[in-house]
Amino acid sequence: MKILITQPKLEQTIRQLENELHHNNSVDIVIFPEGYLNENVEAACHLAKRFDTLLIGGYRRMNDRPKDRAIIIDRSGTVILDRIKYSPTSFVEVEGLKIGHILCDELIVQGIHYESEVDIDLVVQPIGVGMFSEDQFQEWIDAARNIAITYNTMIIGASHADGSFGNTGMSIPIAYCFDKNGEVVFISKNDVRPRLLDTRTELVSTIS
């Protein structure tokens, strides 16, 4: 399976996502950051169907609190996971994969809770803005590695290319992937180029 990990800038539309799909139309899954879709879910569903691709990331309901939600859209353009942030972790089975979805600081705040006998194949962590310090960067990398080892699953995370937390003015864009043994597939810091992962070979290519 081919997974495209993207780190677009925050935008009101989803033109960057459409552009990535146009140039990488053979991928099976596209991962994008927390909140990226904003309220453009219907448009994203059309893109998933048009490009025959699963979309995994986050969107916002601006009048809700919390406003961020986890989302997975299947190849037919149907929303198969829609969960409010800080609610219990959700898992879906799609195309023979058991996929878990955590949003941003849920990694630290609540982790995941999974008691099924069915193994998890993939956990995705869409992140909002980049890290506000080197210490936070390392903390999140270590927490993600621990999930991979604990649940014997691949885990992938990615933040936006821009933005900063609160008033810190600091942002270290982050993307990563660990295999089910907790071994590094890739770790990206301050490099927001999209990455294409072949899950069968665990080979990663950077797209300029």
The whole-angstrom Rg is 15 Å
Mean pLDDT score: 94
What is the end-to-end distance? Answer: 21 Å
Give the helix tally: 4
Number of strands: 13
Helix content: 10-25%
Query: Which strand order do you get reading across the main beta sheet?
Result: 5-4-3-2-1-12-13
Could you list the spans in which at least 5 consecutive residues all have pLDDT below 50?
none
Q: What would you say this structure looks like, in words?
A:
The structure is a single chain. 20% of the residues lie in helices and 31% in strands. The protein is of the alpha/beta class and 208 residues long. A hairpin with a 5-residue loop joins β10 and β11. The chain is globular.
Please give the structural blueprint.
Blueprint: E1 2-5, H1 15-23, E2 29-31, H2 41-51, E3 54-60, E4 68-73, E5 79-84, E6 90-94, E7 97-101, H3 106-109, E8 122-126, H4 134-151, E9 154-158, E10 174-178, E11 184-189, E12 195-198, E13 203-206
Parallel strand pairs: 1-2, 2-3, 7-8, 8-9
Antiparallel strand pairs: 1-12, 3-4, 4-5, 6-7, 9-10, 10-11, 12-13
